[in-house]
Amino acid sequence: MILKKAAKDTNKGERKAGNELNEEIEAQLEAELEDLGDDYDEETVEDIVEDDNSSAKEEFEQYIRNLMTIYNRELVDEAAQEFLTNLNTPINRKKISRELWKVDRRRIDLLPFYTRLAACLRECCPIIADDLSQYLIKDFRYHLKKKDQVHNEVKIKNARYIGEATKVSFVRYRHTR
Questions:
Q1: Which of 29, 78, 82 is nearest to 60 (CA)?
Q2: What is the pTM of this model?
Q3: Which domains are seen in the chain, by residue range?
């Protein structure tokens, strides 16, 4: 009974925060419409909303492309800060864990930096590190059962990635035995 009441209170707080966010977005939209003057119609309003969505998507895609250029700890920390301040949405969290897992098999040099990024993001968004560790363990078990001599580079990449993740403790040691 108490848990249900606490869950309802939490949902009310989330709804209030969501309503405040919606009101803020509506206020911004109204301000942009006032800037347009009397020349706007429904299509103009839809274009403004679509531009906001497409610009956020383009910004995230640019962020993912920039991850390939990370080569030191300072850049990793800056990338984590940028993600948390500008790009932290549930959809982007799911996408970034997938992108961190899909590192190219020939770019093993990025594994320590991607692991550090996931560890930094784990403090505020634990789902990113959890998803990444699930992807790694699942892929490792898949290749372990397969037992063929093909895709050796992928197997090596995966084993090294799990090793790096174990160092920063977001893959449990018991999974790596």
A1: 82
A2: 0.67
A3: 60-176 (1.25.40.180)
